[in-house]
Amino acid sequence: MLYRFGVIGPAPSVAKIMEVAHEEPSDIQFIPFIYTHPLETESIIREHRHEVNGWLFSGPIPYSYAGPLLGPEANAVYCKPTGASLYKGLLQMSLHLEHLSTRISIDMMESEDVDFKEALLEAGLPTDEMHLKMFTGNVDPEELVQFHLDRWKQGLTQVALTCMNFVYASLKEAGAPAYRIEMTKLDIRQAIRVLLGQARSSYFKDMQIGVEIIEIDRFDQLAEKAPTRYHLQHLELKIKHMLLQLCEKVDGTLIENGNGRYQIFSSRGAIEREIEGLRDTVKHLSLEAGAPVAVGIGFGSTAFSAENHARRALQHAKEKEERGIVMVQQDGTIVESVGREEELAYAYRSLDKELLEKLNQGNISVKTYNKLEALVQRMSWEGFTASDLAEHLGMTKRNAQRIMVSLCELGLAEVGGEELHAVRGRPRKIYRLVRN
Fold first, then answer.
1. Residues sharing a CB contact under 8 Å with residue 333, sequence separation 6 or more, in sequence order
2. Is the pTM for the entire model greater than 0.90?
């Protein structure tokens, strides 16, 4: 497979990356996209995102500008500045000035702060006369230019070190002595290795086999209530038509199992890209049939394992009152509310023997505990009530209360406080999970 990566950055940085990129195998192609101002990053990605398998950014600045357009699964890395980048800039500055000055103004992104400060300390350089400007990704470059110029004109600094090409060019134009903190070839090679690893991993992940099992609830009862024998046949034709339209979108194969159950075989990548289409189809199927629809999605390296995971996912979906879509990934991770803001991923098994023994004592399944733990992490709860659990996990308040009392007795949770009602009644206990 030919991998195509877009390289985004200012001209000098992109040229350096392209020079190193020529060392890579012939099945990797790098396409340069040069900007004058980092703000152009967004338009470059919007215009060319469908032409490449991933993005290589010259540094953290264009990467931060691209952030809103990059999803969590995007193949994108940047050349991370290291101590070597800083030492290189200091060395070039010292050679030109013929001495090492510590009266320097330096700008750097907040995300890179720790590395650079460590590098300065390791080099044994006094930082008393250094002026540091920390900035976030959406900083106005003109602000950085002014920062350096102000200190230089006031005589507080002799030279500026900047990690942004725009700032460097502006300072040179203003006659201020300035040097770049540039990535080294080693930094570039490391970024390329990471990007290629991500792309190959994503490709094999996309090529996993995916199975969707779609089941209309109580379909046999629909057949019994059908006013005529043709009514049910018309309904089945409508259902099949909607599912065939979905099949076209995922380039899949439809199999009819009978009694309101259907299977679609496709690839993981195609299925994940059409989750919204699947959700719309399920909604229309439910309205057409007048019954809830459950969907189980399974992924695996073989059709057998993917189908088994889809069956397990379907079973989980049918346990939920509202049915809906549940996914089981290749590693067995269960994902509920797929693609939505309230998406919840958890494992249905555990290798922690001590935890399993405690859960068995409390008659709590490891699936329930993992689901609870995943919910607490996703909601960033410092404390929660049994009512909170019941609402978010679709269980009765009595069952949620029983689970939390058991977890407290097992030492896996604790009562952290109480919540008073506005009306009469006993105050509700606030719980916290505890893991040693």
1. 345, 346, 347
2. no
> Which residue, 208, 152, 199, is CA-closest to 179?
152
- The sign of the dihedral angle between the CA atoms of 181, 186, 189, 193 is negative
Distance separating alpha carbons of residues 13 and 81, to the nearest angstrom: 12
C-alpha–C-alpha distance, residues 343 and 335, integer Å = 7
Q: Name the burial class of residue 115, with classes exposed (0-12), middle (13-18) and buried (19+) by CB atoms within 10 angstroms of its CB.
A: middle
Q: How many CA atoms lie within 13 A of 195 on its CB side?
A: 28
pLDDT mean over 257-272: 90
Q: Return d(Cα 53, Cα 75) in angstroms, integer.
A: 7
Residue 310: per-residue pLDDT = 93
CA angle 344–345–346, rounded 5-degree value: 125
Round to whole Å and give the CA distance between 182 and 96: 17
Structure tokens at 375: 């919910």
The two beta strands, 209-216 and 261-267, are antiparallel
Distance from C-alpha of 162 to C-alpha of 85, rounded to nearest angstrom: 11
Q: What local confidence, expressed as pLDDT, does residue 130 receive?
A: 84
In tens, the pLDDT along 200-222 reads 777 777 778 999 999 998 887 77
Angle (nearest 5°) at CA 300 between 247 and 240: 20
Q: Give Rg (Cα) of the chain.
A: 29
